Amino acid sequence: MMRGYTGKGLVINLSKSEIFMQKISSDQYEQFIGGRGIGVSLMSDYIKYEYDSPEIPIIFATGPLTATAAITSGRSSVITKSPLTGTIFDSSVGGHFGKSLKKAGYDFIKIFGISKTWVIIEIKNDEVNILDARKLEGKNISELIPLKEKGFSFAGIGIAGEKKVKFSSIVIDGYYCAGRGGLGAVLGAKKLKGIFIWGDKEVIISDLKRLKNVNSKIIRLLRASPAIFGEFGISEFGTAAFVDLIHARRLEPTDNFRKTYFPYSYNYSAYRLKKTFKYKKTGCSGCPILCKKIGTNGIKIPEYETLSHFGALNNCSDLSTIIEANEICNDYGIDTISAASTIACFSEINSLRTNPDDIKKTLINICLRNGIGDALAEGSLRYAQSVGCPELSISVKGLELPAYDPRGAYGLALAYATSSRGGCHLRAYPISHEILRKPISTDRFSFEGKARIIKISEDLNAVIDSLIACKFVFLAATLHEYCEALNAVTGANFDLQRLLKIGEKICNLERQLNKSLGFNEYHDDLPKRFFTEEGSSDDKVKVLPIDRNEFLQAKKNYYKIRDIK
Q1: d(C-alpha 327, C-alpha 336), whole Å
Q2: Which of 9, 67, 199, 258 registers the highest number of CB atoms within 10 A of its CB?
Q3: Domain that holds residue 124
Q4: In terms of Cα–Cα distance, which of 16, 82, 14, 3 is closest to 50?
Q5: pLDDT per position in the chain (565 positions), as tens?
Q6: Cα torsion for 170, 176, 178, 183, to the nearest 10°?
Q7: CA-atom Rg of the chain in angstroms
Q8: How many CA atoms lie within 13 A of 553 on its CB side?
Q9: Helix locations, 145-194, DSSP H
Q10: Is residue 290 one of the residues assigned to a domain?
Q11: CATH number for 105
């Protein structure tokens, strides 16, 4: 077994209250690395089952760098079949859960079955117990976190997960969310309220001196990056730093993506947030960036997508409403992107001018499945289809788009369409080169060369999600440094081309699994609005619709490069 791995996973069957170990060979790690890759490979035999079947597992996986001295080594991946999209799905999430899992002695946890009553799983090194949690039913995340013993990490669901809201989240340590795709509903279907985990075992690595040397390189690159440690960078302002940037580029989804410019976004700009809340920095285990911000009064500062979608997308300029909406989502456990987008879709279909009170009331009704909230809890696409307006769900494969309008970034348009998990900007992360100009700038209003760029970027990000590392680091560092870190930890001899081939294999496997579920070229598309309607600005910038023929040609080129028949 290569260093950095434990070589075993914890398998739990909730239907039978059985707990046993599953060994993983070095060969499987060499093929899939860890994290997302291992999780997807382990899901292959079960993808045919529905998300609420006892046969479907949910997998919490670490990577080879997890719980080592490597930069951003605290992350973990959650992998299963999405209740929202019906696709294979994974979520890379920060916090301390991954580190605790690895130090408890496991590379992954695979959970099957459905419990007869609500339970929690408690893991303390080799001691694993399934405990009665009926008294925790109906409690939100803020009520569960005080139960966490010192040193334990916690992954769990709030009421939205219990109600199987299709975009409910798994919340890690009260703050970090495996949010997209409705993974919380899978725990809800299994009647698993959460997992408490603690470990103190040593993670053995091959060459600590070599790892420290490559860490020094990565830190130097991070310190030299304006996007990370610059005066207006992510370390200073968190992802809220994107508010002004996306506003200036006229990429700002407004009024359910009918417009691309919101004149009042300054009300929730990064500077406004810092001045108002005088926040302190915090972040995931092993991360020097510390992009999370918490106000002196304990307020958790929302991420960019949350700010923009509860702001511009819903025509809301009231900062206090956005902050409160974020608190509701974190506490009940629902994805802020899908929640805000579903409300915006509902408002357009019903010709409503949403006010701040409506946003908060609708959110809670979704979480509780009360009234119209029951229909909206199914996601924007199912709701829009039910009332005969499917085109007004701004989603791909049922996953609502994040806060970047594709009419202003054509690589992003192609990435949304081809993503294996639906409308996701993180699969290929074209924001890096189209907006942030890292590692090089590309023409954001052109499809020229984008098919190849998106394919390579998807492969790269599959590797990053399998190691598991933070994508923000790659605005400064490269896979070259992380390949060196991987070899220092494992004692193996990976090279860049071999890693990218592994990333390609993971992406192709995901497409194959989706194809087996009925997904095809028809589903690799964008909502009609982006091809027929202009965006908007303050008249200084014209935002044209995407040319449909150019988009289809770029998609055809992508299929050819990825060798999709």
Answers
A1: 10
A2: 67
A3: 8-198
A4: 82
A5: 799 999 999 999 999 999 999 999 889 999 999 999 999 999 999 999 999 999 999 999 999 999 999 998 889 999 999 999 999 999 999 989 999 999 999 999 999 999 999 999 999 999 999 999 999 999 999 999 998 888 899 999 999 999 999 999 999 998 899 999 999 999 999 999 999 999 999 999 999 999 999 999 999 999 999 999 999 999 999 999 999 999 999 999 999 999 999 999 999 999 999 999 999 988 888 889 999 999 888 899 999 999 999 999 999 999 999 999 999 999 999 999 999 999 999 999 999 988 888 999 999 999 999 999 999 999 999 999 999 999 999 999 999 999 999 999 999 999 999 999 999 999 999 999 999 988 889 999 999 999 999 999 999 999 999 999 999 999 999 999 999 999 999 999 999 999 999 999 999 999 999 999 999 999 999 999 999 999 987 767 789 999 999 999 999 999 999 998 7
A6: 10
A7: 22
A8: 9
A9: 159-162, 183-189
A10: no
A11: 3.60.9.10
Is there a domain that residue 150 lies in?
yes
Q: Examine residue 72 and state whether it is found in any structural domain, yes or no.
A: yes
Distances (CA, A) of 187 to 60, 161, 166, 330, 389: 12, 7, 12, 16, 31
| Whether pTM exceeds 0.90 | yes
HSE of 369 in the Cβ direction (CA atoms, 13 Å)?
16
Amino acid at 386: S
Q: How many domains does the chain have?
A: 1
Which of 34, 209, 350 shows the shortest CA–CA distance to 362? 350
